[in-house]
Inverse folding.
């Protein structure tokens, strides 16, 4: 008889093989895998007592805590569906998602309860709100007190099928209402097996939760690090100081984050020079960094840099940038260029870059096409949205909306989102390439590039720039610098200096807000030059 590929198996394995091992550190509390399993059973029994059944949606609004981690397995044991919520949305966003998902229960951290309070009376299906770390003023159920009332030793699980939906994850919704991505147990299980191989996950690993568990490169952690009996370090508030402190105290060996967070760690390291004795792997998802950035991470921090690529709709990871054995002869500079790319397909993922006729682009690193994929990770579909599902998955291929090239070694390089490509005088310009050039300027801390109208060329690149502390540089100097680094048609034609760039909860720069800001101040931003 075949064993179904269901996620509860991962915690079961950890308990059998690593039951007495210290599995989770959360603030001052420490839990073994047996402790964690006991809390999971209490949660499952509590959920059943509240009437939660197989297929019901249960939502979580929480930072990286043991309560968030145990929520996955506690929900799965009932065959219910986890709905993790982005912690940086607005109350109106939560109102839409909770009602659209028809969530039955909501677990929320006390620090985030103020985002729910304004809309709680408008929640159509949420029957109860339970609060982690509840204070005396909050008029809801206290999680720890509630949990303590239920049996920790056992739970009579629902029968699960690997094609049952396990999680419902909502996309950012920058161009409309968020879409709920349905991922199955099979999606997440096979993704975990694939990812743990490519990231070389082992039982001796100590994983620091930097990316939120709701995030595209963060929610796999409860599965593949648990399956291997690794140790989880839950970090509720993420700052460069808290990250380095946790890494030193717990001998952290691996962590996932966005490029902007890693950039902040580099700035902190420059000033404070914290010392770490252990080997560290840092897994980066998001816009491809410039090769010089990769070199800095590996030389200054001494960490192994691993770039990955994926999206919510593919569970998420599909590509990885580690150097394959037949390319070890390349120079350090060439290796850094390769590591900065999205990478080559992971096991079980067929990823291609195709032109408008559906033909694969030439492997020359120049011809641009759309990235499409079919794999074990492709979502079941969008919840209650068959039209968008059919638009995104066509003839068995998921169309990502990302534009890329393929080099001679088969590495895919994401050059832009389809909507972020700048078309100037008929030439395609990658905003990511322009940003990479700007990051080489010694006075620039962060940069983001968008398209703006131009009378002669149709549109040209415009940069939003954050300068390093106590640095001064003019718009004309940055324009001249970009013209030195790039073909002139790719150089920026205007610069806006800002104190910070708008970012998602995971640190990804939100260009949609920069576009909106530009249009609100049209005619006042920067200066156009030919």
């Amino acid at each position: 008889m075949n064993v179904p590929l269901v996620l509860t198996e991962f915690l079961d394995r950890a308990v059998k093989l690593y039951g007495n091992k210290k599995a989770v550190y959360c603030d001052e509390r420490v839990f073994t895998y047996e402790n964690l399993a006991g809390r999971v059973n209490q949660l499952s029994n509590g959920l059943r007592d509240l009437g939660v059944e197989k297929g019901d949606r249960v939502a979580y609004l929480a930072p990286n805590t043991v309560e968030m981690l145990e929520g996955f397995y506690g929900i799965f044991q009932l065959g219910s569906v986890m709905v993790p919520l982005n912690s940086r949305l607005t109350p109106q966003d939560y109102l839409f998602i909770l009602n659209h998902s028809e969530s039955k229960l909501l677990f929320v951290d006390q620090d985030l309860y103020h985002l729910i309070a304004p809309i709680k009376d408008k929640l159509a299906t949420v029957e109860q709100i339970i609060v982690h770390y509840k204070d005396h003023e909050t008029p809801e159920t206290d999680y720890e007190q509630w949990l303590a009332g239920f049996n920790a030793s056992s739970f009579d699980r629902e029968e699960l099928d690997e094609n049952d939906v396990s999680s419902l994850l909502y996309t950012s919704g920058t161009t409309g209402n968020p879409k709920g991505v349905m991922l199955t147990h099979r999606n997440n299980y096979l993704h975990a097996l694939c990812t743990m191989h490519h990231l070389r996950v082992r039982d001796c690993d100590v994983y620091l939760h930097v990316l939120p568990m709701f995030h595209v490169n963060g929610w796999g952690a409860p599965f593949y690090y648990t399956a291997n009996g690794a140790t989880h370090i839950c970090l509720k508030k993420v700052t460069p100081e808290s990250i380095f402190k946790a890494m030193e105290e717990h001998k952290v060996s691996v962590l996932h984050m966005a490029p902007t967070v890693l950039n902040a760690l580099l700035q902190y390291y420059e000033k404070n020079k914290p010392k770490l004795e252990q080997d560290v792997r840092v897994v980066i998802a998001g816009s491809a960094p410039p090769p010089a950035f990769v070199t800095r991470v590996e030389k200054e921090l001494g960490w192994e840099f691993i770039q990955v690529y994926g999206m919510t709709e593919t569970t998420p990871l599909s590509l990885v940038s580690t150097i394959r054995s037949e390319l070890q002869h390349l120079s350090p500079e060439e290796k850094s260029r390769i590591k900065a790319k999205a990478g080559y397909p992971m096991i079980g993922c067929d990823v291609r870059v195709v032109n408008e006729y559906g033909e694969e682009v030439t492997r020359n690193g120049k011809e641009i096409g759309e990235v499409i994929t079919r794999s074990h990770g492709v979502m079941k579909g969008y919840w209650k949205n068959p039209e968008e599902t059919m638009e995104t998955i066509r003839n068995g291929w998921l169309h990502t909306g990302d534009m890329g090239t393929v080099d001679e070694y088969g590495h895919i390089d994401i050059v832009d989102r389809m909507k972020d490509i700048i078309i100037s005088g008929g030439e395609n310009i990658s905003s990511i390439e322009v940003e990479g050039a700007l990051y080489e300027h010694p006075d620039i801390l962060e940069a983001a590039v968008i398209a703006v109208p131009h009378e002669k060329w149709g549109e040209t690149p415009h940069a939003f720039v954050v300068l390093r502390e106590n640095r001064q540089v003019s718009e004309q100097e940055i324009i001249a610098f970009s013209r030195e680094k790039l073909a002139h048609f790719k150089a920026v034609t205007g610069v806006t200096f800002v104190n910070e760039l708008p970012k998602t909860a995971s640190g990804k720069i939100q260009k949609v807000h920069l576009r909106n800001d530009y249009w609100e101040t049209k005619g006042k931003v920067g200066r156009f030059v030919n």
